[in-house]
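A quick aside before the break. I want you to see a complete sequence-to-structure record at least once, exactly as it would be stored in a machine-readable document. Don't worry about memorizing anything.
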Amino acid sequence: MIPALPFDDDRVSVRLTDRLAFAHDASLYRYVPNVVFTAHTTDDIQRIFAWCRDHQRSVTFRAGGTSLSGQALAKDTLVRLGNNWNNVDILDDGALVRMGPGITGARVNAKLRAYGRKIGPDPASILAAQIGGIVANNASGMCCGTAMNSYATLHSMVFVLANGVRIDTSDPHCDVMLQDLSPDISHGLISLRNELRSNPELVDRIRRKYAIKNTVGYSLHAFLDEDEPTKILARLLVGSEGTLGFIESVTLRTVADARIARTAFIVYDSIEDACADIPRWRDSGAAAVEILDDVSLRSFATLPSTPEKYRVYRPDIAALIVEYHDMEPPLPLNNVEWTEDESERATIWKLRKGLMPTIGAIRPAGSTMINEDIAVPPESLAGLIRDVRTTFRQFGYDDGVIFGHAKDGNIHFVVNVSMNRAADIDRYARFMERIVEIVVDDYRGSLKAEHGTGRNMAPFVEREWGSAATDIMWRVKRLLDPMGILNPDVVLSSDPTMHVQNIKPIPTLQPTHHNDTTDRCIECGFCETVCPSTNLALSPRRRIVLRREREIHRSEPSIVQQIDDAWAYDGDATCAADSMCSFVCPVGIDTGVMVKGIRAQRTNNTMQRITKYVASHMQIADAAASLVTTFHKKWGRSPNLRRSTSQRDEAELIDVLYIPSCPSRWFGQGPTCSLPEIVERLSIRAGIHCSRLPSTSYCCGQPFESKGYTEAATMARRAMLAAIHLRTKGQRPDILIDTSTCAASLQNDLEQEGYRVIDQTQFALRILTQCPPRHTLPRLVSHAGCGSHKLGTTTEFVRILKMCADQVIVPSTSPCCGMGGDVGIRHPELPTSALRELAHDIVLLDQSVPTLGVVPNTMCASALREATGVNYVSLLQIVELVTSDDGK
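That is the input. The structure line, written in tokens, reads:
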């Protein structure tokens, strides 16, 4: 029974599907919360804490949900962050950065880039991991080590304790405030500090433990590194995983971002050979040395997105990724190629950062992927790897994988485990006991180096730290959280079997479409930052989670019905099916394909017949849409679709065949003329023989396919292909589709026929080659959109804008506007939610500088204009302006 809640609005949910959606994260555990709160302010946090104290409830915070040790899952009350925790303030010309807990590390770095700075922590999940989680887990990464993690770079912090007291350590009177408001905590911290410092053996142990990466237990070196209670408390909160308080904001000292980085992908005949070479790279000043075993290499060797040169899988081989910052690598060596090319380096690091999901994707169906994170003194790394591989074989985990941060003596290992029987759980428990022996007893290492203690190492804290240190940790916990309301059984637990409880079942998902690969998802959450519906309904990960929960509860009709009822809006109606999730997913899972497959399964014969009729009579739909938009004040008059004067004689060679898309025909009105008319002007100006498909009765099929009407979509595409063949008569001109998403949907079909599909971006490049800009505009804001990502033209899109403007803003938010064709028209709350952060960032721009937004997709322009107040226009309108004689 849930007592009276502190809120009665959308800040709280007890709906089953919301609770199930947040029962999973990137870890191996599953806990279904009883209540899900969405906190927007510090007052919300304090009221939730008071409610928990009054009713003996417990509370767990969830930031990005990328944690691997179960610390973001709630046994009782889950608190997720609303949209008001994304603040970033850059201080002292970039030397410091103050951040809210809800902004991702990648967005912070994007804002710091102009200052040549970045935050020190660089976890592989930085695209999705939020600052609250990065700091609360003391996450590190490839280059971070122990010198640049959150603890080492902490400047100040604002936090809320379990008793509701709020402290800002940048306030010079903060210790007086703590003494006044919580004298027991102030005195208790001083007492613990003095006791610890008086124990030389414990001091030595702490210094030795933190000489290497270590996130097991609480940050006891806080008592050695700080004197004042509030400063000690702030450092204790780093790595505390939400068990000691809530981090409202944190200020970190930034580190220099490399001006020049040189990276090499080096293949070795064996993992022993790779280990033998690590000291040379480490001792010569490499910023990163990453090791990958043969199974790691195999995990991405078969991915379509992996370049051929990195498809190097052979049994027993290994590789190192080595990178130097602002210094030359050692003298040239045979078979070592260094690259400074930003695109090539990004490819290498994408493969490395995506290893956990790519490894998880090759797990046997129904098995659970377990990712452990251990560290030893770097000189002991080769022995550690040898012993862990032996343990894999000893316990029958023959598919065990090893990769990680070799420079720091920190490896991750992955085993795929079936947990369906008691014997399976017992085998895993014995396996972990052996790993503990190896790490703690044999190498005096860390059972968690950077992933946080969580639930799966909480039972082993005393084994690693000893009784004296663990006793102080328990006293810290009881001092700061005497009622035990904050994330119980995380970091510290008296239950020796906590690590093998509530293991997450992974039921097999049957594909809804031949391209549906959602069963490979390991629920890492990388997809959530690019999905327009993440903060409105469900994210791609949570859509997959609900599908799995439906399978888990398939024998419980009432729960299945609740899931299906919620899916209608949360899973289906608000999915733009834009495929952006597939670009950040390391294994390319496109949740939109799953959703479209479900839509197709739910269509009926009547609607299939109607849509096929419409697909074969597109002139009817075209006329109707044009009529509607003529009278729709928001869109302006319907563009003039007279026969283009650039229409050539059929015997004449065609450079470009232009097919105006449905959106540009209906909505593509510029200030003085339509988009088709702009294409005509630019073609004449550049001397390009551009012919237009004479009829307006063609469609790429995407509007049908996105709704599950695959037969109608196929008919529409085939009709367009037939018309193209008829018009080109054996020629193979470029096919210009002026809406990027439409161009992307036709790309494969047309390329198979020998045509090259181009969108506004590629056509603009052709124009600018012949007609360089005569003028520049003051400022342009880029929105390349999902279509450009699919076509691979995002970089060129931005490059064109830089040719056309004095200043170009490339936002780090809202890669998809949420329109999704007509989805945003039917559900305007979707683009509003998707563009909220972008709108906030644009408000912060200097409003005295005239600004235009630029898109390669007409439908995006309306949503962006509505959300931001900036006038967004098509890319070709910009090119027409800057290449004209008068710039008007």
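Two observations worth writing down. The radius of gyration is 29 Å. Residues 484 and 562 are 33 Å apart (CA to CA). We'll return to this after the break.
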